[in-house]
Structure formats: C-alpha cells, structure tokens
Amino acid sequence: MSSSVAPSSKAVVGLYRSYLRVISQWPADPIRPTRNMKTALRSQVTDAFRAPVATNELPARIQDAERQLAALQQITHNDNPNYYSKLVDMLEKETAKKNFEAIGKKGPSFFQRLFRTV
Length: 118
Hints:
The protein has helices at about 10-25, 35-50, 60-75, 85-105, 110-115. The chain is an all-alpha fold and about 120 residues long. The protein has two domains: about 1-80; about 80-118.
C-alpha cells in the first residue's frame, strides 16, 4: 500500500482477515506440542489490530504489517514440507543412539552384580 494514500478501514479489515487466514493454515508443531504457535500468533495479531494508532503512523504500520504478513505466508507455504518429519526422525534416532550408548556405560546390571564372583 502506498504511504501517500491514507488507508481506509476496509483495507485494514482486509489485512486483518488475511492474517487470520494465514494463522488458520499454520501447521501444528510436533516438536513443541505444548507451545501453540497458532494461538500465540492469533493473540499477537488481535492485540496489534486493536491497539490505537495515530493517523500519521497508520500508513507505516500498515506497510510493516504487510511485510510481516508476507513473511508468515512464505513460512506457511514453505518449499520444504518434510522439514519437521525429517527433524523428528533425526531427533528420535539421536535419542535412541544416546540411550543405547548410556546402557553400556552404566556398569554391571543388577544380575551381574548379584552373581559376581569375587
């Protein structure tokens, strides 16, 4: 949106709705299931659009909001859709490897200690 033209309330509402559409498409995060990014984004956007803004600041704020919206859209429509599944697989394999290595480093098992010959 050009900064020389005063934005209308219709443009602001359209921008808000665009944010809500992107947020509704936000994927679940299997790595952090207790940290809901969708809820955090929705809260942040709602607060930002409800906050009072001086008329002279509005064009710059809308321009900034449009840049942030474009970034969120790019993240939502990423070109690496298997990123999380690959990351989860890698983390699970690494954890299993560390657990396996830790078993060998714990020392003798209960039965080995029980039947140890001195």
